[in-house]
Amino acid sequence: AQSVTQLGSHVSVSEGALVLLRCNYSSSVPPYLFWYVQYPNQGLQLLLKYTSAATLVKGINGFEAEFKKSETSFHLTKPSAHMSDAAEYFCAVSVNNNDMRFGAGTRLTVKP
Amino acid sequence: GAGVSQSPSNKVTEKGKDVELRCDPISGHTALYWYRQSLGQGLEFLIYFQGNSAPDKSGLPSDRFSAERTGGSVSTLTIQRTQQEDSAVYLCASSPRHTYQETQYFGPGTRLLVL
Q1: Residue A51 touches partner B, C-beta closer than 8 Å
Q2: CA A105 to CA B4: how far, in whole Å?
Q3: Per the CB < 8 Å rule, is A46 touching B103?
Q4: Residue pLDDT, tens place only, B68-115
């Protein structure tokens, strides 16, 4: 069965600094990978998804993620953090269209 | 257009009572999902509906949990004889069709607190 691990339950960066949120997956077959963002008191919103096309995926709000099969990773990055990026971020994996597993989430704090 | 809506937004109940949580999916979306989000944990899949097909109940944690979807639209998640460990945020999502490669659109959730 597939699974996903997010390293770091809390990440804090300064405004303007690089954002790096880590996600590693476990799957014996090519997965579909997703990043969702949850702002306070709101539901989850899709940031980007990898569905076996280009390995570098660009999403909304300047975020991107790179699928690295050799490292079983799908880390989320943004070159310059903005205060509005403060939220909780979830990585998710789906294999063979059989359910979707979410990571435990990483809370991003952006300091002025 | 309108997104996924859920009601109530917050629910406080006493242990042993039954609760009903409602989800209104985006119009035209045939797939509907329920998840549970406990403090400090990721989303736990509970159940999904696709059109008029029998729902996939494989994620329901116990027989105290049940869900129905009337007319292929609104869904109700019912928890009977609530326990304190049921306290969580219950999220509903919908998508145009059931495939996990499809984007899911989430509602704001219902925060359930069982005292």
Answers
A1: yes
A2: 22
A3: yes
A4: 998 878 999 999 999 999 999 999 999 988 777 788 999 999 999 999
